[in-house]
Each structure stands twice: as structure tokens, then as C-alpha cells.
Design a protein that fits this description.
This protein is mainly α. The protein has two domains: about 190 residues, Orthogonal Bundle (Fumarase C, Chain B, domain 1), CATH 1.10.275.10; about 230 residues, Fumarase/aspartase (Central domain) (Fumarase C, Chain A, domain 2), CATH 1.20.200. The chain is about 55% helix and about 5% strand. The chain contains 19 helices and nine strands. Strands 4-6-7 form a three-stranded antiparallel β-sheet. It has a two-stranded parallel ribbon with strand order 1-2. The chain has a two-stranded antiparallel sheet with strand order 3-5. The longest helix has about 35 residues. The protein starts with a strand and ends in a 5-residue tail after the last helix. About 50% of the residues are buried.
Length: about 500
């Protein structure tokens, strides 16, 4: 994937191959023109925020041209105060790439030499070790991004060949000379939204697998609870043509195809007077599942579109226009779009967890599961308990997921002497979205294990080909529950299968 000043699509970004910086002369000249214009203004004595002045509230303090290098060094140095768990190597890689893309737009006043350092990190697979906490999402992700700046300068730690090593040692091993920042370059790296964007991209990629797996579980519920598939028919969703809703209904219907357990509405109408306990319609959690999941699909598409725009945007301050010969003080570092996208996705995950919880409850409760019995017990002895405790764990996880849906963007905290008096909290929103996913994965693990148990009770040959294949995959790793035993190991096994996309 060639990085220049052109648009990089979300799909290309995610699945592109090796990152390479354009070496076209026009692009090199375009990048350097911004830096040359900046230097010209500095030499003329013009005060430029963060370049010849202090930062934030200290923006009133002037720094001479000769102090520009020290100013940039101190900027990444005093922001080295991140805390919490470290971001993964994948997130660090994405974060480095995202910042490189933004700086390549030629409006940040940096040199081509700096971009080459980004390319070098990615080429050698040197990923900065970055603490996850310490950003309020404006002025951008200052603290997390300081770790990229510091690594470029040869300081702090990196993830290299799967190990945490000092940057100095890795540079010595590879013969790399630490970079000395020119005017504004450390500020240009740090004053952006790359951390929140990278966390969001990584989490969304994982969530898409979980969403597809959830659709597989929902499809199995239609079969295992002997449900009416009429609510999945195209006529229904063409009548309310939201793209996500139509997509979800089609996905579930396809996965149910070939089942001997589902039926259509006309059979229920015909047998209404013969089956005293049969309701003419299924419960909302089943009948409305395309509508519930459809909203999630559509919001996911919106989130990806906003992220695509963000990673292609120039989000540092000030902006440099070498063509129009102007310097713009602005607020593009405000991560509002990522914050709102992630807050919305967190609500989506909460609704998904609630749906799984409701459908799981129907599956294990003998009052609602149409003959599957008490807690899906195969051994009917009164001393055995089936999935009773598994439901409790799943319910606990549901609560944990839903509790993490409070919008982070509403928790703007004034800081830095009230200079940063309205901040996005975009990084917090993205982190909390990512934190929901392990709980959701464990929920699905329990649900999938129960799904297989119900197939044992209904008989595999009655199920759709898709459900049969999923059943075979589970039974290759997890035995049916014939007697009371620990299930935590089974949950871990299926958890790994889910993350690999086995049921997606």
C-alpha cells in the first residue's frame, strides 16, 4: 500500500499489504514545501503555536528559533506519563500507520525525512510500547502519541520480534540512528487522533466476527425453538428497507435453510385450534432479531465511514498551507466523531448482549423451550442441573457489558488550566468499546455450547446444514453435558474458536 496524499479506503487500510511511502519527486517536494514555509515564518520572527511558543496555557511564552529543537524534545518528554495496560502490537502498528497517513497530507509542516522514519518503523516491525490510558481526546492523543515520538527519537521501549525491548538496543542492533526533530515535528506527531482511531479499528475488526457469530446463534434459536421463519422473509424487510435489517434477515434465513425444525406461518395458522399451548407468534427476542441486529449493522457501517474520514484527515494544530501561504490555528484534533461512533457501538454491543441473554433464557427454560427440558439436561436425574449455573454466568456477563454503555463523550473533563475545557474522550470511548468484547465473546461461548446441547436433544439430522457444521465443530472439541462437571475449560476452548471465526 503506497502512502501519499491520496485517500486511503478503510478496506484498503485494513487489508493492504506492506506499507510503503511514495518516493515520487512531486510528493516529496509537496511535503517539504510545507516545512520550508514553516521555517521561513519562524526565521522571520512570527510566533507560531507549539513551534515558537509554549503549549496550551503556556502558549503566551515565546521561544526563539534556536530553542525549537529543545521545545520539541521536551514536548514528548513531559507527556511520557501514560498508565494502564499496554496496547497490543497490532494496535501500535495501526496507530503508527494512521499517524503516517495523516501527516502525509502535507498540511502539518513536517519534513519528508520524518515520514521516512514512520516507514522504517513499519518496515522493520518496530512497534512502540504504548500505555492505554492518559488521553482525553483533545488536543488529540497527546500522551499515547508521545510514545511514538519518543521511539522515533530513540527513547523508551518497543515491541520487537514479540518481545519488549529498549528502543536504544533495537536501534543499535539494526544500525538505526535516532531522529532529531525539526521545528513542529514532535507536535505534529502527537497532536492527533491516531490512538483512538487505532483502538477503534482493531476493536471493530474483532466485533465483526462476534456479530456474525451472534447471527449464527440467533439462526440456531429459530431452529431449536421450532420457530416461524416468516419474520425473516424478504417481503417483511422490503417493507421497511433499512439496509442492515435486510442484511441481517437474509443472513439468518440463509443459515436456517434446509432445517426440518422451522416452519412458516401458514402451518401455525392451520394448527392453531389443534395446539392449545402454541402461540400464533414467537416472542419479540426472536421475531424482532433482524430489527435488533440490523441497527447494529447500520451503525457499524457509519462508524467505519467516520473512521475512514478521520484517518485520512489532518488533525493536528496548527495547520500549514504552503500554497495559500497561511497558518491556521484550529481544533481538528478534537476526536468527536470517533467518540460518538464508539459510544454508539458500545450501546449496540449492550443491545446485542441483551438479545443473547434473552434468547439463551428461552433456550434453557423448560417453560419456553418447547420440549428441550429443564436446563437442557440430558441426564434427567434430580441430582443433575444442566446449564443452570451457565445461565448465571452469562447473565453476569450481560450486566458487565451493559454497564459499560454509558457515553464517554458526556464525561468531558476540563484540564490544563482550562485551556482544554471541552474534550472528546474519544480514546476512553474506544477503550471501553474494546473492553466489552471479551465479555461478549464469553457470553457467546456459553450460548454456543448450549446450542450444541440443544442439537443433541433435537437430533442433528433435523438441523440445517449450517447448524450441523457448527455442531460438528463444537463436538470435535467439547463433549456434551451428560453429567454435572466444570465448564470453564469448555468456555475457554469455544472462546478461542469464536475468535478464529469458526461460527461466523
Amino acid at each position: 500500500m503506497i502512502i501519499d496524499n491520496s485517500m486511503i479506503s478503510y478496506k484498503k487500510f485494513l487489508y493492504g499489504e506492506e506499507i510503503k511511502l511514495s518516493d515520487e519527486k512531486d510528493f516529496i517536494d509537496f511535503i517539504n514545501a510545507g516545512h520550508d514555509f514553516l521555517i521561513e515564518n519562524i526565521k522571520n520572527g512570527r510566533p507560531i503555536y507549539g513551534v515558537t511558543t509554549g503549549y496550551g496555557e503556556a502558549g503566551q511564552n515565546y521561544a526563539a528559533f534556536e530553542e525549537a529543537e529543545e521545545l520539541q524534545y521536551n514536548l514528548f518528554s513531559f507527556h511520557g506519563c501514560g498508565v494502564g495496560e499496554y496496547l497490543s502490537a497490532d494496535v501500535s502498528r495501526i496507530m503508527t500507520t494512521v499517524r503516517m497517513i495523516s501527516l502525509s497530507k502535507g498540511k502539518s509542516g513536517i519534513s519528508y525525512d520524518l515520514l521516512k522514519r514512520f516507514e522504517l518503523l513499519l518496515k522493520e516491525k518496530i512497534y512502540p510500547l504504548i500505555p492505554s490510558q492518559g488521553s482525553v481526546g483533545a488536543s488529540g492523543d497527546l500522551t499515547p502519541l508521545s510514545y511514538i515520538a519518543a521511539v522515533i527519537a530513540g527513547e523508551r521501549e518497543v515491541i520487537y520480534k514479540g518481545e519488549v525491548k529498549s528502543t536504544q538496543d533495537v536501534y543499535a542492533e539494526l544500525g538505526i540512528t535516532p531522529y532529531t526533530f525539526k521545528a513542529k515535528e514532535a507536535l505534529a506527531i502527537m497532536n492527533g487522533t491516531a490512538a483512538m482511531s487505532a483502538i477503534a479499528i482493531d476493536a471493530i475488526e474483532k466485533f465483526e466476527i462476534l456479530l456474525a457469530t451472534s447471527e449464527s446463534f440467533v439462526a440456531s434459536i429459530f431452529e431449536l425453538l421450532l420457530c416461524d421463519i416468516t419474520p425473516l422473509e424478504p417481503f417483511v424487510h422490503d417493507s421497511k428497507p433499512f439496509a442492515g435489517q435486510r442484511k441481517t434477515a437474509a443472513n439468518i434465513l440463509k443459515k436456517c435453510s434446509g432445517s426440518k425444525l422451522t416452519h412458516e406461518a401458514f402451518s401455525r395458522y392451520e394448527n392453531f385450534h389443534l395446539e392449545a399451548e402454541q402461540n400464533i407468534q414467537d416472542r419479540y427476542s426472536i421475531r424482532c432479531s433482524p430489527q435488533v441486529l440490523g441497527v447494529i449493522h447500520d451503525n457499524l457501517d457509519i462508524a467505519k465511514k467516520w473512521i475512514e474520514t478521520e484517518i485520512n484527515g489532518v488533525n493536528d494544530n496548527p495547520l500549514i498551507d504552503p500554497i495559500g501561504k497561511r497558518i491556521y490555528t484550529s481544533g481538528n484534533f478534537y476526536g468527536g466523531y470517533i467518540a460518538h461512533a464508539m459510544d454508539t457501538m458500545r450501546i449496540c454491543v449492550g443491545n446485542l448482549a441483551d438479545l443473547i441473554d434473552k434468547e439463551f433464557g428461552l433456550l434453557v427454560d423448560h417453560k419456553f423451550n418447547k420440549g428441550l427440558g429443564e436446563s437442557l439436561k440430558i441426564n434427567k436425574k434430580s441430582t443433575h442441573h444442566g446449564f443452570k449455573a451457565m445461565q448465571i454466568t452469562l447473565s453476569s456477563l450481560t450486566a458487565d457489558v451493559i454497564m459499560n454503555t454509558v457515553p464517554a463523550s458526556l464525561h468531558s473533563r476540563p484540564t490544563e488550566s482550562f485551556n482544554q475545557d471541552k474534550v472528546s474522550m474519544g480514546t476512553t470511548a474506544a477503550l471501553h468499546f474494546a473492553k466489552q468484547l471479551p465479555d461478549l465473546t464469553n457470553m457467546l461461548s456459553i450460548a454456543i455450547i448450549a446450542m450444541a446441547q440443544a442439537v443433541d436433544l433435537r437430533a442433528k439430522e433435523n438441523c440445517s446444514p449450517v447448524l450441523q457444521a457448527h455442531f460438528d465443530a463444537i463436538r470435535a472439541e467439547v463433549q456434551k453435558l451428560s453429567y454435572d462437571r466444570r465448564m470453564d475449560i469448555d468456555i475457554k476452548v469455544v472462546n478461542e474458536m469464536i475468535r478464529k471465526g469458526v461460527f461466523a
